[in-house]
Amino acid sequence: MSETIKTDVVIIGAGPVGLFAVFELGLLDIKAHLVDILDKIGGQCAELYPEKPIYDIPGIPYITGHGLTEALLEQIKPFKPNFHLGEMVTTLQKVGDPLFRLQTDGGKTFEAKCVVIAAGGGSFQPKRPPIQGIEPYEEKSVFYAVRKMDAFRDKKLLIVGGGDSALDWTLNLQPIAKRLTLVHRRDEFRGAPDSVNKMRALVAAGGMDLKIGQVTALEGDDGRLVAASIKGKDSTERVECEAMLPFFGLTMKLGPVADWGIAMNENLIPVDTGTFETNIPGLFAIGDINTYPGKLKLILSGFHEAALMSQKVYHYVYPDKRLVFQYTTSSTSLQKKLGVA
Ligand SMILES: Cc1cc2nc3c(=O)[nH]c(=O)nc-3n(C[C@H](O)[C@H](O)[C@H](O)COP(=O)(O)OP(=O)(O)OC[C@H]3O[C@@H](n4cnc5c(N)ncnc54)[C@H](O)[C@@H]3O)c2cc1C
After folding, report:
1. CA angle 62, 67, 69 (to 5 degrees)
2. 159 contacts 202 by C-beta, under 8 angstroms
3. Which residues of 137-174 are buried (b: 16+ CB within 10 A; e: fewer)?
4. Ligand 1 center–CA 44 separation, angstroms
5. Cα distance between the two ends of the chain
6. Distance from the CA of 216 to the center of ligand 1, in angstroms?
7. Quick one: the chain helix, strand, coil %, rounded to 5?
8. Best residue among 33, 44, 102, 252 to mutate for probing ligand 1, ranked by most atoms within 8 Å of CB
9. Closest by alpha carbon to 282, among 37, 145, 113, 138?
10. Contact indicator for 160, 245 with CB cutoff of 8 Å
11. Residues with Cβ within 8 Å of residue 287, at least 6 apart in sequence
């Protein structure tokens, strides 16, 4: 077991909200360590849609999931955050007032005055389609996320599903694929109507195929897909493909968070909306993991929550100091912290 790492705050989750929390805490001279199960920084933005555009980050008309992660990393650089990637926080105990002890499955122990849970949906895992013998193809020619669009260039692709992910990737990959077939079990889609219309227009123009049915079997060798059987209403059809992307949604596995004695509401953590503190003083929850009346699972909501959370954390970390509200535009002291004055 390695030495205990002592810090002001441990942030569980290095998604966009955990990253922005480093900035807001840093402005108040609060040091943070971040721990994430993933081997990369950026949470859902990095794992699920690195190359997809996001249009609703205030002041940024267009940015990809990867671009947002990079921009947040640039923004928090002055605060030199410590990342512990590929490690899951498994235990969290309150051992003082305020003092928390956390352990990871990588054998690290942390002691922090406050803990910020920014764990999103927990350890999210894609739902596997019910196709016998799919396992050998996974990560070789069956993928549950698109990490690099170029990996699918000039390939015969099968996309399976009827929600936003299936439709969005259909529209994004159709221009670069050799041939793209979208398979959905019925001729109605849950995705955004605009995406459905665009997809149908492509089908009408002969730019892609749409099959109504279910993938029942895969054909190939050594994990390399050659074709899939699609069972329709009246018959089964063989469709040649080199890669399959099933989008059946994600199972949000909360993981160890549920065992930490925090009040939960349907796998989410209820919080006070003035501070984003949980029922345990000094323990905060921000981003997709929390719940309160009117909660929207949007990145911008998580950014707001990070700002308010930091104000309360300040009082635990510096109980004898008075917090003076300041703007980054006009405060020389904040600008010094950011390295711009
Ligand atoms: C396809 C898609 C498109 C989207 N488009 C938009 C959009 O256009 N605009 C928008 O605002 N939002 C969008 N979202 C939602 C947005 O991605 C989420 O609101 C955002 O990622 C939440 O950020 P977060 O930091 O709270 O959690 P996450 O991004 O989920 O990050 C949480 C991190 O915590 C880690 N973690 C969990 N448990 C532990 C543990 N015990 N130990 C260590 N690490 C742990 C996870 O590995 C994960 O990396 C989209 C989501 C998807 C799936």
Report:
1. 125
2. no
3. beeebbbbbbeebeebeebbbbbbbbbebbbbbbbbbb
4. 4
5. 42
6. 31
7. 30, 30, 40
8. 44
9. 113
10. yes
11. 13, 15, 16, 17, 18, 118, 119, 120, 301, 302, 305
pLDDT band of residue 51 (cuts 50, 70, 90) is confident
Query: Are 164 and 175 spatial neighbours (Cβ–Cβ below 8 Å)?
Result: no
Q: What is the pLDDT of residues 96-140, one digit of tens each?
A: 988 999 999 889 999 999 999 999 988 766 788 999 999 999 989
Query: Closest residue (by CA) to atom 15 of ligand 1?
Result: 298
Query: Per DSSP, what are the bridge partners of residue 116?
Result: 11, 284
Closest CA to ligand 1's atom 5: 54
Provide the token pair at 89. Answer: 């926080």
Question: In this predicted model, what pLDDT tens digit does every residue of 137-146 receive, in sequence order?
Answer: 998 999 987 8
CB 208 within 8 A of CB 181: yes
The residue behind tokens 């990871």 is: 104
User: Helix 299-317 and helix 16-27: axis angle, to 10°?
Assistant: 40
* CB-ligand 1 contact for 298 (6 Å cutoff): yes
Nearest to 11 by CA among 21, 23, 2, 26: 21
Provide the token pair at 254. Answer: 């909360």
The 3-state secondary structure of 236-291, one letter per residue: EEEEECCEEEECCCEEEECHHHHHCCCCCECCEEECCCCCCECCCCCEEECHHHEE
Q: How far apart are CA 169 and CA 72, in angstroms?
A: 25
